[in-house]
């Protein structure tokens, strides 16, 4: 197998996947909207009857509560966490970009406690206009 053939195959399959994904998304859009409407209707019915759940022969509808906690004032939150030592309010994780820069600046060494694992993958792009005109000029 040569690069010409394998790259052509890769791009053809990627195009097919993109087309199928678009068709699937279009197909699913109406079904997701209907499912959302049905769920909202069930929630209204539960609220109207003062119930937390309703059991039927077809299944049980029940109310759940999802929480969203976003920062409106990052500096105020940071001051509160540090000032009250409320470390449980935050998540600790390594910033990939900063760790990559640290590794580059420190001879390939990651910060203490961080497992740094670069993963090599392959990317394929369409030929440029020049490549299409002169396939020998790569």
Summarize the SSE layout with pairings.
Blueprint: H1 3-49, E1 53-56, E2 59-62, H2 74-84, H3 96-105, H4 129-133
Antiparallel strand pairs: 1-2
Summed up, the domain count is 2
How many DSSP helices?
A: 4
Cα gyration radius (Å): 26 Å
Number of strands: 2
What is the spatial order of strands in the main beta sheet?
Answer: 1-2
Helicity, as a percent range: 40-55%
The rounded distance between the terminal residues' Cα atoms is: 19 Å
| Unreliable residue runs | none
Shape: flat
Q: Give, in order, the helices and strands.
A: HEEHHH
Give the overall pLDDT as a whole number.
92
How much of the sequence is in beta strands?
Answer: 5-15%
- Main structural class: mainly alpha
Sheet having the most strands: 2 strands, antiparallel
What does this molecule look like?
This protein has 138 residues and is mainly alpha-helical. It folds into 2 domains: 1-64, no CATH class; 67-118, no CATH class. The chain is 53% helix and 6% strand. The chain contains 4 helices and 2 strands. The chain has helices spanning 3-49, 74-84, 96-105, 129-133; strands spanning 53-56, 59-62. Strands 1-2 form a two-stranded antiparallel sheet. The radius of gyration is 26 Å and the shape is flat. It starts with a helix and ends in a 5-residue tail after the last helix. The model has no long low-confidence stretch (mean pLDDT 92).
